[in-house]
Amino acid sequence: MGFETVTLTPRIGSQVKAPLAQLLDGSLTGVLRALLEERGVLLFRGLGMTDEQQLQFGKTLGTPRHEHGTDITKVSSDKKASPIFAEYTQGTFFFHFDDTYMQYPALASVLLARTVAPQGGQTEFANTYAIYEDLPEEEQRYLDTLQAVHSQETIQRKVFSDPTKFQLSLWGEGAIPATTHPLVWQHQSGRKSLLIGETMSRIVGLEPEESDALVRRILDLAERPEYLYRHDWQIGDVLVWDNTGTMHRVVPFDLDCGRELLRVKLAGEEPIMAVGA
Length: 277
Prior knowledge:
The chain is α+β, with helices and mostly antiparallel strands. It contains 8 helices and 15 strands. The chain has helices spanning 20-24, 29-39, 51-61, 128-133, 137-143, 152-156, 165-171, 208-221, and strands at residues 4-7, 14-17, 41-44, 73-76, 108-115, 123-127, 147-150, 179-182, 184-186, 192-194, 200-203, 228-231, 238-242, 246-250, 260-266. It has a 7-stranded mixed β-sheet with strand order 1-2-3-13-5-15-4. The chain has a 3-stranded antiparallel β-sheet with strand order 12-6-14. A hairpin with a 6-residue loop joins strand 1 (4-7) and strand 2.
C-alpha cells in the first residue's frame, strides 16, 4: 500500500492511507504537516498502533508535551482510569480549542481509540480558517480588531452551574486564570483563523448584550455543515487534528460506558498573535 489520501468532506478532513512503517520512520513528516494545516483533521484507520508506536508517530509530527505526569494521556470519563480528565469530560461536549489559557496552545493532538461508546461519543471538528475566510471582507476587518476573554470556568459552568469547591480547584478562574486573546489569530503562515469556542465569556470593549449577541452569532457559524466533520470512532482509529485552526467537541455519551482514548499532545510552535502584530 502506497501513500494515498481520501477527502472526508469538502472543507475539512482527509483520510490518509500509508504503511505503518512509513508513518513511524518520519519520511512523510513534511507531507503530513502540510496536509494537516490544509485539511485540519487527518484520519488513519486500521493500523493497530501500540502505545509506543503512537508516541513515536507523534514525535515525527512535533514535540510531545508531557502533561498529567505522562506523555500519553488517558481520555476517559472513568474517574478511576483518568481521575483528572474525567472531571473535564462534560465540558468537552461544547466546541473549544485546547489550551486557550496558554500563549502557545498545542500544535495538534494524536488521538487513538481503545474503547468506543456504543452510542454517541463521536468527535466533531469545525474549520475556523474556513469560517473566517467565508466572512464578508468588511466583517473580517471588524473582527480583526476585537479581543475575547476565555476561561475554563466559562465552558464548565455550562454543565455545572453550581460547581463544588473541588471542581473550582481544578478549573475555576482561581486555578486557571482567564486569558484575553485576539478574536482572529494571525498565523506565521500568513493565514488567519477565528480563535473562538464556548470558553469565550465576553468580547472586550462591548456592552454585555452586544458582546453576547456577537459571541453567539460567531459560534452559530460553526454549526453550518460545510465547516464540520463528525468522526465515528472505530477501535484502533488514529486521528490527528490541527489545534490552531480547528475547534472540536464530543457528542454526549453515557459516562459509564467505558469509552477510552489515548492522546499524545504536541507542544505549540507559534504564539497567538493579533492581526498586524
